[in-house]
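Q: Hi! First time doing this. I have a protein sequence and I read that you can turn it into a structure. Is that right? Here it is:
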Amino acid sequence: MTTAIEALTLRERVAADVRAWMTKRGVTGQQLAEHMNVSTAYVSRRLKGRTAFDVDDLDSIAGYLGVPLGIQLGARPSDGPRPPAGSQGNGITGGNTAA
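A: Yes, that's right. Below is the predicted 3D structure, encoded as C-alpha cells:
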C-alpha cells in the first residue's frame, strides 16, 4: 500500500519539507526570495512543487532556515543514512583501505 507521502514526487516532497521548515521558522516566501536574491514567483513555483529546487537553492535555504541540507532532500527520520550498495561497515567510502 502506498502512503500519501510516497505518492509524491521528490520535487513535491522537498517543497513540502521547505514549506514546513519555513512555517516553523516564521519565514515568508517573500523573505526567502529576498534571501535567495530571486523573485517571489521563482520561490512560489518551487514551493508549490511545480519546479524543482536546484542544489544551490537548497544549500542556501538550509543555511537560512538553520536546518541540515538532508532535510531539504526529502529525507525522513526513519530513512537514516544508507551505505552505498555492496559496501560494508559504516558506509564511509573513499581512500585506500588495502593493507
